[in-house]
Every structure is written in C-alpha cells, then in structure tokens.
Fold these 3 entries.
Entry 1:
Amino acid sequence: MNQKNSLGLNSCFMDLGDPLELFRIWMSEAEKKEINDPNAFSLATVNKNNEPSVRMILLKELKQEGFVFYTNMNSPKSHDLKKIPKASMCFHWKSLQRQVRISGNIIQVSNEDADSYFASRPYESKIGAWASDQSKVMNKREEFLKKITELKNKYKDKNNVPRPKHWSGWCLCPSLIEFWLGDQFRIHERLKYSKISNTWKKEILYP
C-alpha cells in the first residue's frame, strides 16, 4: 500500500509549500529513469492571430524566477512570445508515469546569462546557432552545410565563438504548476499550485 501525504495523495507529491522544490525532486528522479532528454518539454505559445503552436524544447536552467530555455530570437516561438509574453509548458516522464504542467508570464533572460550559457555550449552547437535561420524555408540543405563550413573557417578558435545577437533565452515565470501521477483505470492523482500574491495555494484536482 502506497504511503500518502497530508492531502491523501501518493507520497511522491510530498508536503512542500514551494512547487519549484517539488519539481527539482521530480526532475532528479526523471534524470535517473528517462533514457533520453528528461529535460524535454512541450512549449505552447499563441501568435498575434490567436493561433496556438506547440513544439519540444529543452529546459536548461531552473531559477527562483522560473524555467529557462534558449533559442533563436527570430524563430516563430520567439515572435509569439514578443507579441504575447505568456506560455505553457508540459513535461511528461513516461517511465515514472508523471507529468508536470506549467503556465505563466515570459521574460527574456539577461545578456549576461545568455552569454554565459552560450559559452558553455559545444563548438558545433555554437556554429549551428550562427548558421541557422530557424524555421525559414531552405532551398537546398547543401547551402546550410556550406554556411556551417564557412563559419567554422571564420571562427577557428573553438573557445572564442561570440554569441549571435539573434540568439538568447526566455524564462517562464510560473503562476500555475500542476503535478500529475498516472494510475490504473484513469484514477490519476493531480496536485495544482496556484500563485496568489507571491504565495502558493495547493488544491487537489479530479482526474
């Protein structure tokens, strides 16, 4: 019989007032179980015409302010976020039968943070950030590969590749975080944290 927390949920939900602390614990467990990219999540945005779009992204940092990811600032997702700075993300760890949904406002990371993370990337990834006109139509792949070769010749010092001005990061500042645990016959367990005046309120949801 599974142990329960004070709300009658599975003990994996614990009894924490801060959902970011619980997320860190769940992420740590996912890193031990998931074969590929436990930090992968789907990011949903809306454009100026109220048309939704979703894609997979990698979480690169969890700060007290929120969830940080990096991308081309000329990409469709970035254009969406510049127009409507709100987003939702969803992590799903099949091996653990767990899911986390997060919604909130979006802010751009500082140039210092973007520079620091870009410097930590592999050389090939840095070159790729320069070479790619993300999501734009490509005539021939050979043109892209040629561009990569040219940039490698330009930036031969692998430790001295500057960050492109069009490349930076976003931070989702959460106002809602929901933790989900799968169970048989769809008798799932759900715990929602809602941020009200800088205080997190906990509620149990029906499956």
Entry 2:
Amino acid sequence: MADAAKVEEPLPWIDKAGNGAKRVAALLLGLGPEVAANVFRQMSELEVRQIALGARELKRMGPSAISESLNTFIGSMQEAGVDVLGGDAMFRKMAGELMAPEAVKRTFDATPPSHQPEELLGIVATADAESLAMILNREQPQTIALVLSSLTAERAALVMDRLPLAMRPQIVRRMAVVEAVAPEVLREVRLALTGELQSLVSEGMRKVDGRVAALEILRRSPAAQQTEILAAIERDEPNLANDLRSKLFTFEDLTRLSDRDLQSLMKDLDMKQVTVALKGGSPEVKEKFLKNMSSRAAELLEDDLSAMGPVKLSDVEAAQAEIAKVAIEAAEKGRITIVRPTDKML
C-alpha cells in the first residue's frame, strides 16, 4: 500500500491544480500521435499517468481548454527567455550524437548533399552485373578498379565474380589503394563506357573506399582463390597484402571457431594479451573464451578484466590483431579451421 501511495504522488512539474499536466497533454495533442508516442517512450509510468489525468481534465473543460493551455505554455517559455542561438547549438549537439558530421552540416548549414561516385557513374552503376562485367572485361585493371570502387561492396563483388580469374589480383590490388576520385576521371570513364553523359559532374574530390570493396570480394571468394590473389599482390606490395590478409580474419571472427579449435589456439596465446584484447571485444567473443576455459582460469580472467583500468584503443587493437595473426598462421598449418561467413558447413 505504501508503494501505491508513492506512485500517486504528484511530480515536481505538476502544480496542485494539475496545470502542468494539462499543458503537456495539450502540447502532445497538438503535435500528434506519432510524436506523442515517442515522448511517452522516454517517460516513466507515473509521468504518463499524470499526463493522462491532464488529458481527461481538458476533455471535461471543453475545446477552449486546449488553446488556453497552449497559450499559457507559450507564455511561460517566453518568460523563461529561451535563447534561440543556444537552442540551435543544443539541437546541433544532439544531432551530432545521432548523425554523421556531414549530415549534421547539411541539416543545420543548408549544405547541399554531395553526389556519390555510384550516382556520378549514371547507367554504368545501374547496369546488370553480367553486362557491366562484359564491358569491363575489355578495360585496363586500373579502370575496372575505379568503377568497382565506386559501386557498393555487394554490387562490386557480383561484377568481380564474372570477370576472368587472371585479372582479379591486379584489380583487387588497385582497388585497395583507391581513396579519392576526381570528378573528371569519373566523367571520362562514364563517357567511355556508355557513350553518353546524363548529368554534369560537380567539382571536388569524391571519397570511395576501394579497400572495403576489395575485402568484400576476397571474403566471398573460396579460400584457394584468396590465397592465390594475395600471393600475387604480395610479390609487388607485401605490406598491402599483409593488411588485406589481416582484415580477412579479425579477432571477432574467433566466435566462429569450433570449441576444439579455440582450445587448441589458446595454447599458443599469451593470456595477458588475450585480456587486453577482450577489454575491447564484444560480449560474444568474451563468452566464447570463457566457455572454453576451466572454471578456475575463467574466474581469473574475469577478475583480471574487472581489475584492469582504462586501456589505450591502440593497445587493444594491436592485441586483437596479433591474436588474429596467430589464428591465421595456425589455420595455414592445418591446426585449426577458419570458418568464414560465406562457408557452408555440413
């Protein structure tokens, strides 16, 4: 009974006459059901109950009560001296927590959105994968890499599947170093491949992430093809090959190892390094390790994680990369089996 009485206790923003509840109810009625529902999700049950009481009181008082409550609300806001410039800064900060910096700038500074490389390629980007592969098959690897880097990773992978195997190492190598594309280059490619230009290309550089697309293509390739492509790249650019190879299997991918393989791998790992890596790992990878350790070892690991203070992100990433490297080496020696997302298991 004491708890029930506590629930009915008025909230600080509601006076004895319930005017605060009526004003909030009137405001939400004016904003509509969708906005009201989103506001309710941020409130406690007690707050929603108080607003419901305010809505009943508005109904009893008649239609004029809503406009009177809204006018009172507006008057109180004016008396509070709301700072418009401060409001803009507040909204900008809130948006920055939910949106990308470029999107925030477009929204608040009326900056026109920049066109994406895929859009600038026009019908080249919308052609079916088979037709686009037939056209690109006659082009130089650097041209193919430019086009594929400007497409989505999934679409680029579909086109790559239809290109000759002998061309793929050169294409992937060039894609992996593409960072920016000048609009005039895209225009030339578009003209060369389609014979017509549908829109003018705006000035400025266009960012593309060819490395992400290259990795997606490699991930979709059988293990033998991955090894062949990376070996060909390694002959000319060993650092690039190592970077691509390390990103094909990450620390988080350890969750897909069998329990037996992870137990075997842990014999080669430095548990201090594992602790640092798990500091920035997902709950799933942490649970995977704990499940494959003895009760005593798992307890010690959890104690070490709890006692560990803040760790540099670079240290966590280095530890995770080293463990992934050990896993790759173990797989190459046939001691464990790496299961990729695209692998079908029986």
Entry 3:
Amino acid sequence: MAYSRVICLGEILFDCLADQPGRSLEEVESWTPYPGGAPANVACALVKLGTTAAFVGAVGRDDDGNSLVQLLQDIGVDVSAVQKHPTAPTRLIYVLRSQTGDRQFAGFGKRDTTEFADTRLQSAEIPQHLFEYADFLVIGTLELAYPETRAAIARALELAEQYHLKILLDVNWRPVFWEDEAEAKIFIEEILLHVDFVKLSEEEAQWLFETTDPEDIAHRLDSAEGILVTAGDKGCFYYLGDTKGRIPAFSVEVVDTTGAGDGFVAGFLHQLCQHGIASLASPVKAQKTGVYASAVGALTTTKPGAIAAQPTPEEVEAFLAVNFF
C-alpha cells in the first residue's frame, strides 16, 4: 500500500466563476464551474509538485461528486477516504470576479449552506491507517460550521496527535458558510490551540488576533512552530523557526486569484517534506521555503480555476530562476 505524506481534510466542490467579470450577481449571464475546495486544492497541488497526498471529505452520490473524485484520482491524490452521501448533493458555490481577478463569494444558488454532502463527513469512517505514516494534516475552518464535520475534524486531530503528525491550519475565513460570526470565532480559536502551523490572510490575522505581526501571533499560540500571513500585493510575512521576515509579492499577470492561498500552502508543505522542519532553524532556508510557497501561489493566479492552474515543479523552478529577489 502506498502511503501519503500529507492528509488534507475538508471540502471539495465546484467554484462556479462568473463569466462576466465586474458584474453583480443579478447581472451575470453565465457561469463556468471549476473544481475547488481548499483542502482538495492543496492535495492536488502537492501531488503535482511531487509530494504524495490524500484527501478526506464527502461528496454527493451524483455526477458532480463522481467527476470531482475522478479528477483527484487522475491527478494522483489518494481518494480512498472520500465518503459519498446517498442524498445530499455535492456543493456548488457561486463566485463573482472583479476586473482585476479578485473574488467575491455569492452564495450557493437556491440551496442553504447546510444541505450539501460536505457537511456530513462521518468521523467514524475516517481511516486510521492513513495517519500511521503521514507527516502532516491540513485542515481549514469552513467545515467547523457543521456539527457532523466538526466532529470529524476533532477525530482527525486525535489521530494526528496519536501518530505525531504536524497540523497546518489554513484559516480560510468565509462568512458565507456561517450563520453566526461570534460562534465561528470561538470554534476557530479552539482549533488554533492544537495546530503547529497557521496560514492566514492579513484580514484574518486582524480579526482573530488584532495584529498582523506573525511573531506576535506565534507568541500567543504556544504550540505554533510557524505563522504565515499573506497580504496580497504586499507579499507574505512569516515567523518560522524563530526567524521573522517578509517576502515581497511576485509580479504576475493575474487572471484569477482562486486557489492562490492553497497553492501557497502546498508549496510550503512540499518544501517541508523535501527538507524537513528542522531546516526552518536556518534563516536562509526559512526564507527560501517562503519564497517557494509564494511562487507556487503566484503561478496559480495566472490561469482560471484553482486546480487547473497549479504549476509543476519545473514551472516553479523556471519561474524562480528569473524572478528570485
């Protein structure tokens, strides 16, 4: 049996991107579905970079769910832990785009957020053997909004602790998934106590910690070994292995920012799998790890969709050869 070094748990879905950038929800005439969902994006990006990954999540027993699972399988992601719900549909989320490629989530069509299969991930069906030889668990916060999947995340955290996996949380705050922002913050703050690495945007850092300084955040989270704060065109701020730094943003022609943060996470974990966490003790290697992650994220914005745009290691190396600061 082949073992995956990274387990990505959470949502998989179709991002339905507006075909007419700059228009409101009412004005959009047509939509194009792209496979997405942050943990699934990370799993695919990792495999494309050369690091084995498994995806744990739930889809509907429908054509959308089947096509998403098939896509992951074709890329090389381990999908043995994907659950298929007999009645709940696979999630679709509608995404508006600005003229500059930035996104705005516009809801779930005619369905309520609680109706989709990804909210029904069963903790009892998470295979323990996946955790025996893995190195990292990647989770987000979207699925904390739903009781069944919240329990599944708790189970995954137990298994990660039992088998000594490092845990990376991508905060990925999306209010559209939640009914109560105050409740969301409580759940997220609880999860933060159990993770080793945190990736969050400037806005998320301000919301949760009232600061965007990664060193300050690290000192408030006793268990954290690394904090990554992404800040769009201002680049990335990091605190890794007691090294604090900033990586300027790469200049690329942005087509679609969907999945950029997920590419960043995958690039970061790929480097840790290649060089080991101990490498972060070197300020030079910590910076190089952040630069690589930023390059993967930047390249993901140069094509539409999250998964289709993800780069190969050769593309990343070629990009860095001409763009490294």
